[in-house]
Amino acid sequence: MGTEASSDDGHHRLRASSASSRHLHGVGGASAAEVNLSARRPFAEKLWSELAETFFPDDPFRGFGALPPARRAWSALKYFVPALDWAPRYGLAKFKYDLLAGITIASLAIPQGISYARLANLPPIIGLYSSFVPPLLYAVFGSSNNLAVGTVAAASLLLASIIETEVTADENPQLYMQLFYTAAFFTGLFQTALGVFRLGLIVDFLSRSTITGFMGGTAMIIILQQFKGLLGMKHFTTKTDIISVLHSTYHYRHEVQCELPVQFHHWKWQSAVLGICFLLFLLSSKHLRKKLPKLFWVSAIAPFMVVVIGGVFAFLVKGDEHGIPIVGDLKKGLNPLSISQLTFQSRHMKTAVKAGLLSGILALAEGIAVGRSLAMVKNEQIDGNKEMIAFGIMNIAGSFTSCYLTTGPFSKSAVNFHAGCKTPMSNVVMSVCIMLVLLFLAPLFKYTPLVALSSIIVVAMIGLIKVKEFCHLYKVDKFDFCICMVAFLGVVFFTMVTGLSASVGLSVVRALLYVARPTTCKLGNIAGSETFRDVKQYPQAKSIPGILLLQLGSPIYFINAGYLRERILRWVEDEDSLCKSIGHDLQYVILDLGGVTSVDNSGVGMLLEVHKSLERRGITIALTNPRLEVTEKLVLSGYVRDILGDEWVFLTVKDAITACRYALQMSRSKGEDEV
Amino acid sequence: MGTEASSDDGHHRLRASSASSRHLHGVGGASAAEVNLSARRPFAEKLWSELAETFFPDDPFRGFGALPPARRAWSALKYFVPALDWAPRYGLAKFKYDLLAGITIASLAIPQGISYARLANLPPIIGLYSSFVPPLLYAVFGSSNNLAVGTVAAASLLLASIIETEVTADENPQLYMQLFYTAAFFTGLFQTALGVFRLGLIVDFLSRSTITGFMGGTAMIIILQQFKGLLGMKHFTTKTDIISVLHSTYHYRHEVQCELPVQFHHWKWQSAVLGICFLLFLLSSKHLRKKLPKLFWVSAIAPFMVVVIGGVFAFLVKGDEHGIPIVGDLKKGLNPLSISQLTFQSRHMKTAVKAGLLSGILALAEGIAVGRSLAMVKNEQIDGNKEMIAFGIMNIAGSFTSCYLTTGPFSKSAVNFHAGCKTPMSNVVMSVCIMLVLLFLAPLFKYTPLVALSSIIVVAMIGLIKVKEFCHLYKVDKFDFCICMVAFLGVVFFTMVTGLSASVGLSVVRALLYVARPTTCKLGNIAGSETFRDVKQYPQAKSIPGILLLQLGSPIYFINAGYLRERILRWVEDEDSLCKSIGHDLQYVILDLGGVTSVDNSGVGMLLEVHKSLERRGITIALTNPRLEVTEKLVLSGYVRDILGDEWVFLTVKDAITACRYALQMSRSKGEDEV
């Protein structure tokens, strides 16, 4: 095989004795160049291979078969509990890195935990609780070495916006919190179920464009929500859309202005100035990171510094009495059990389930995408379905221990990655740090100014509005841009759920449209070669008089069978009138099925109809290069054997053309003889 | 072009000066063999061509552009009103055929109209009304020469089953009828809208398997419904599922038995005997048609004969007094206007809209499928979207003139076709016949025994349970068989809507699964040729050491991008360990994109990720034969130009292999030099 591929095509050449005998393929020696029409896999094998491809596309148990039973069980256990895999080989060398990374992400986890809990209108301490238990569990069950577990802004706001349709935090804080725990429980159940039943493909339905638009829109409305904190306001809307928020910002300013004109201005002024200072500091630390990537740790601990500096400042100037609202009391102590607080009353359950499923999908999409993209840099593998189980376990356990929804957020995981983490141990380190904070330092965070949290959120969110990505999408694919914009505008102007579902709906419609209208093209011969290509793409490609060569792409299903029939007949008509204009008859239509990956009952029926229709016009049909699955169906349905004839199925386009030409010449010379 | 395609591949051969310079393509003279990377259509052109393919797949206005404006307007008018096209050329020669066909289908329309109206629990006269106005309109606007318009069994039962959830015919016959008219009105609006907006592709979502199963199931429950007529029962369930119907049949027999034991037995006995006679007669006429296709007219007029004989018999023996229930009074006179009876109260509207849309889709699917399959035999063309408008107009007008839903039913159209109809004029003839019946003969049908109608329905329905087709599906495609069975069992055991929607849902899930899990395969060289084929399908195909050749099929979207990335990396890993075991390194991966008809933003991102991932392993990637649309996206996104390099895109697999081999040899000889 070290030499050039031989261009001897002796095997391909026809041994047709006569066109009318229709026995166009040779018998002996030509097997290499024929379509294997007897290839038929048993049903069980086919079903198994299809199920395996659908549900185990990453084939996690590859290579287990060769092991002895005990080793196999151990491998399977290691597959489900990855900690068993890395822990025995864990040593001080790795721990140094993980310790550093763990402390760094802990410094980020404290301000983020408090901020996002406030974003969800939850007591701030819940944010810290949520950074304690789930990371420990992820360290045991998770397969990503880079993911740092914690709460996320988008899902926090989504949960709040759904649960507030049932009850607001002001009306009944106890029930409000219970619904968050219950939602986290359902999220966990749902994620585990998806993982166990290998349904990771549901997450695939969130396309990049949808996620880009959704994240951008969410970041936008989260920033808008921060008006409350930045302007030191007390009353605010529970809605998330831009119009409600702007209206609320304006309306309550006015209202408060009337009642307490002077104090309001004081509040606003102090909070706003402090906010601007924090924003400038955070933005410049972020800018620094871009300029000098080695100083990433500055931007990593900047939020923590903002919290500390803000807290000290607020403590010194007694901020809460001078227009700088603070977080307020934080109780010392570890997570209390919340298992008894899960509420399964049918009245509230619907909301909790809805919130749980939607935020669960979102959290999965973010967590898995982050895990995968970081793993790719290190050339590691992430098993999406196993990750789902890990997320699910951590959320179920979280819902029992006063935590709300957690996943692997992008910002924290990236910091973890850059800080040099080696294993999930960094999550354990973070968890221990948070534990220490909860046990001893929590009350100190009482003085954290709300405006500090708001600025942290704003800066974290600005990076998520990816204007460049929008432009790129517009340039490359207008439809993807639409999908992205639907998500963005839907979130900004309506609700998060509306934006997300409209965008997913549009993506699915587009995918179905692609399936419904597959590309077909006429092939021509590229001069001086045996290559046949789309004449539209390669205008120099020449067609062969009397023979129409069509390439069908994509599977043939019920959805597109009708269209393909019309389209093929239209090609035939066009070609026919073209042929007639130069004094030929169209006599052969060759369908190149190389791009048809599968065919269903309607598809076979379509081929049959086209065949009959062409037969009535005196045109002969030939098929080339059907794939394995297509060949099976065509043979089983009797189309190839009983109607078309085996001899009209060819391995290559060239073979088909040769056969057609031979038959053409035979019939022409016969015609001349008769004349 | 009359000679063999030259096998000179000089243009393909590489002129690489050095592998490290990566300038692998030749410059001059080789343009014919290169992928045209500058091919980029303007956005407007691309959008237009995509919209045209999506909504005008049959390109109805083809060739209009060349005409002068006046002729063009006339052509357009003729397109919308096909009668203008055929009427001027219509003469006595054609009329002879249409007259015969029209009388034949009228003889079928009378018993079918009465039967199906009774199936829908409507007064029998409505069935005759529905065979008068709609055919006239179809003759003007319809484009099929073979379709015979009338009511259909499946849609009649569907309408009844939906409307009876709101009100039953016994409770409020007036409202019940009004809802039928209103439903027909919405059906018409919906069908017209679908046609105008060229949304015919919605009908494509009803796959052959779904329709086969649904029709079979419906036929089954319709036959079960006939127990009422065949056994001469008065009380019956309004539900359609097999369990309710059997239970009702048993239950009411028992009840009536207790109250009127003797009379009941008399009734049952007479009706049943008469029914069996009719059934035998109809079945044997059908059998005759199969044996002697020329005598099709016997089976065509057999139902009419059953009605006449039954009527005469019932009249003579005073059947209604002796256990043979009859149809009862039929009023003389043409359709009264019903436009004032349409009810748009929000209370009932929802039901009417639901009934209208569902039965409308079903009616369209049947009408268009029938029209197409009959047209195909005569080699005519049917424009699905135009047909929808014709159906829509005829249903709207029907709803104004006391008609309920009509379409082109299979049985009647087939009879029309076999009777030799030439144009839609046969519908006019039928319409005139029905008019005469309505004006003069209607009262005569008063004596038609219900059992005669039941036997007509049973025989018509038996043919719709296509056991052979079920077996065929089971043999060819197990999944299609499942889809079919879901429809069948759903209809039989639950409701018609359940069966239909479950089956459509399953079909769509399957289509999405196919999109989500496209086939990939490893290609190998078929010995003695330049052909590369799936090694699984052609075990004799040999792979090339150090080079992995993968073929991707189907479009690359967000739905399958994640899967394809995993799958490609898995192929690479498998091949890598295979290569290592024989002492090679895997150095090149060639992706054959010939089967990839389109790619979206996620797809391009996937290629980029795979590229980076392979680069980190020291593996070079090459693409072959990207199609027009894919090339555009790859170039626009910057992947080809900035990351991959133009020189790694090849026109054919052979070119790519040659280039890789050349580079391999260069690096090996370089390595040897260094040693």
UniProtKB/TrEMBL annotation, chains A, B:
Compartments reported by the entry: Membrane
Listed CDD domains: STAS_SulP_like_sulfate_transporter
Membrane topology summary: Multi-pass membrane protein
MF terms in GO: secondary active sulfate transmembrane transporter activity
Region (Disordered): 1-25
Alphabetized SUPFAM superfamilies for the sequence: SpoIIaa-like
Occurrences of domain STAS (ranges): 537-660
Gene Ontology CC: one annotated term: membrane
Annotated TM spans: 99-116, 147-163, 175-197, 209-227, 295-317, 388-407, 428-445, 451-467, 479-504
Assigned keywords, A-Z: Membrane, Transmembrane, Transmembrane helix, Transport
PANTHER family: SULFATE TRANSPORTER (PTHR11814)
Protein name (Swiss-Prot/TrEMBL): STAS domain-containing protein
Native organism: Oryza punctata (Red rice)
Upper lineage: Eukaryota, Viridiplantae, Streptophyta, Embryophyta, Tracheophyta
